[in-house]
């Protein structure tokens, strides 16, 4: 199943003026990274939001929120928000949570590929 492209368009509009945001295809959907750190994304019809572990546990008690578990192992500090939870004005609230968390982390620098020496090529 493809991911929700309507949600993607809404996220793109809301985040278009944010600095240092990058959109990447990942986990069969799309992820949005700020400073190289995942902030939120889309998987199927779910909005995925990253936050600190304690806030994630609190948010899971709310309506329309389930654990981020697409592999059989739930990830702490990540939640999946069902469409009824992100429709309308709720989306901006969720994106702000993910953005704040990503900005609280040290920015990741792009890794440069390691150059092989002549000896490594001849092995």
How would you describe this protein?
There is one protein chain. This protein is α+β, with helices and mostly antiparallel strands and 123 residues long. The protein contains five helices and six strands; from the N terminus they run αββββαββααα. A six-stranded antiparallel sheet has the order 1-2-3-4-6-5. A hairpin with a 2-residue loop joins strand 2 (29-34) and strand 3. It is globular, with a radius of gyration of 17 Å. The mean pLDDT is 89.
Show unreliable segments: none
Largest sheet: 6 strands, antiparallel
Look at the structure and give the mean pLDDT: 89
Molecular shape: globular
Strand order of the largest sheet: 1-2-3-4-6-5
Helix content: 25-40%
Output the radius of gyration: 17 Å
Q: Provide the structure class.
A: alpha+beta
Beta-strand percentage range? 25-35%
Elements, N to C (H/E): HEEEEHEEHHH
Distance between the termini: 43 Å
Give the key terms:
123 residues; alpha+beta; 5 helices
Briefly say what this structure is:
The chain has 123 residues and is α+β, with helices and mostly antiparallel strands.
């Amino acid at each position: 199943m493809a991911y929700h492209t309507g949600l993607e368009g809404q996220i793109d509009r809301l985040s278009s003026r944010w600095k240092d945001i990058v959109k990447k295809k990942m986990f069969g959907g799309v992820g949005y990274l700020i400073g190289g750190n995942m902030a939120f994304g889309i998987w199927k019809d779910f909005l995925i939001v990253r936050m600190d572990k304690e806030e994630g546990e609190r948010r899971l008690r709310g309506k329309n929120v389930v654990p981020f578990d697409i592999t059989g192992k739930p990830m702490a500090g990540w939640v999946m928000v069902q469409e009824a939870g992100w429709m309308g004005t709720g989306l901006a609230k969720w994106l702000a949570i993910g953005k704040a968390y990503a900005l609280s982390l040290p920015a990741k620098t792009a890794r440069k590929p390691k150059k092989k020496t002549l000896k490594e090529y001849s092995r």
